[in-house]
Amino acid sequence: MGGLTSNARDQHELSALARVRRALLYFTVGSLRRHPLLRFTLRRVGQGIVTLLAASVVIFVGTSVVPGSPATALLGHQANPKAIAAIDHRLGYDKPIVQRYFQWLDNAVQGNLGNSAIEVAQGADNSPVWAAIRSPFIDTIILALITMLLLMPLSLLIGLVAGITAGRWPDQVFSTATLIFLALPEFVVGAILIAIFFVWLDVLPPVSLLAPGKLPFSDPKALVMPVLTLLAVSLAWTVRMIRIGTISVLRTDYVQMARLQGISERRVLRRYVLRNALAPSVQVFALSMQYLLGGVIVTETVFNYPGVGSQLVNAVTSHDDTEVQAIALILAAIYIAINVVADLIVMFLVPKLRTEA
Q: What CA–CA distance (Å, rounded) separates 273 from 263?
């Protein structure tokens, strides 16, 4: 009897656990059905993780198959093969690439970006990559954020004005100016600014030299020309994209109907045009932020700005594979995070998209 009672109790506990699991599954699935924004968020985050994993493979394989190594960078291609092999063994380069990748990925997931390959090749035991790239990353983020804080209101204002006055002289002036800046690469814009503000006016330094350990805010003049260069290039295409979006919204049926109903032009612009033109602008600003974080290499090189772009160039030149991998992986994670956040903001601004998620 005692055995039967124990079996019955076990079966009752199992059935209770099964009911709990079914209830959790029901509420989870039900909440996803009731909240398309949550479903979309989970899907986009999952896609972002998969994309980052794929990017990590490309980054690691790409840096591993490129000719050259820290050993040859230090000793030269004519060095003793045994000396090169000893350094490669110290770095773990004699292991299979698949084993090295999973070991690198496992460390990265735990927040360990490894040690500088060049420092290890020279005999150092503890030279974390993050310690070398932390300050340049902060400097680049500061430069990018200042540019974005100026870019967003300026591009929205100019883009909306150009779109509203399409075909008239304000639009023609802005369109011509943006075409000129789109045709000029960053180093040309930087050279023009140096000629104006340093050679002719002598009010700004030609390079952005910062004291070691100091933030860019310690010398605001060092930020002016890099910010202006990035702003000029970014503003050109963001204004054109916002202008196109504004013109498209102005031609929609609901805007035309609102005007026919006698609604004031200011209310039409504020209630219908601005909100609907803002949604595609989020993606434009997301692309701008990605460019500012990863595409500042030329600008930082022109002005000798101590950001991550300059750090990446130095790492590639010295064949510091670990540092290149760390910088590329962090930039890839930032790119993906910006895309996910931008998609969620667009979903929030346009309720119609939630029914399609």
A: 13
Q: What is the pLDDT of residues 211-253, one digit of tens each?
A: 776 777 777 888 899 999 999 888 888 888 888 888 888 887 7
d(CA 83, CA 71): 8
- Given a contact cutoff of 8 angstroms between Cβ atoms, the answer to whether 223 and 146 are in contact is yes
End-to-end CA distance of the chain: 56
> How many Cα atoms occupy the beta-carbon half-sphere of 144 within 13 Å?
23
Report how far residue 286's alpha carbon sits from residue 264's, in angstroms, rounded to the nearest whole number.
Answer: 32
**What is the rounded radius of gyration, in angstroms, for the C-alpha atoms of the chain?**
28
Contacts for 48-57 with beta carbons within 8 Å, 24 or more apart? 48/336, 48/337, 48/339, 48/340, 51/336, 52/332, 52/333, 52/336, 55/329, 55/332, 55/336, 56/105, 56/108, 56/329, 56/332, 57/101
| Beta strand spans in 3-123 (E) | none
For 238-258, the DSSP string reads HHHHHHHHHHHHHTSHHHHHH
Domain ranges across the chain: 2-121, 132-356
Strand partners, 115: 128
CATH architecture of 132-356: Orthogonal Bundle (1.10)
Tokens of 323: 């540092």
Ramachandran category for residue 114: left, alpha or beta (phi over 0 → left; psi -120 to 50 → alpha): left
Q: Whole-prediction pTM value?
A: 0.77
